Amino acid sequence: MNTETEVKIPRTIKDPKLLNGVWRLKYKLTNRMGVAGFSGRLLSSYTDTLTGVPRHLYNEHGQMQPGYFIEKQTTIFNPAENILHRNIVDWLIGHPNVSIQQNQVGLSDKFMAKKDDNPRIELINLDHEEIEDLVDEDFIDKLVGRISQDLGKNCLGIQTLRFVLAKLNMPYIEMKYVTNQTIEKQKLRKRLKDFVRAGVGTKNAKVVVEILDNLASAKYEYEIKEMMRHEILYIANAMYKYEGNPLGTSMDSVVKYFTNNPDFYTEISEILYDKLKLEAQEQ
Question: Over 70: is that where the pLDDT of 130 sits?
Answer without folding.
Answer: no
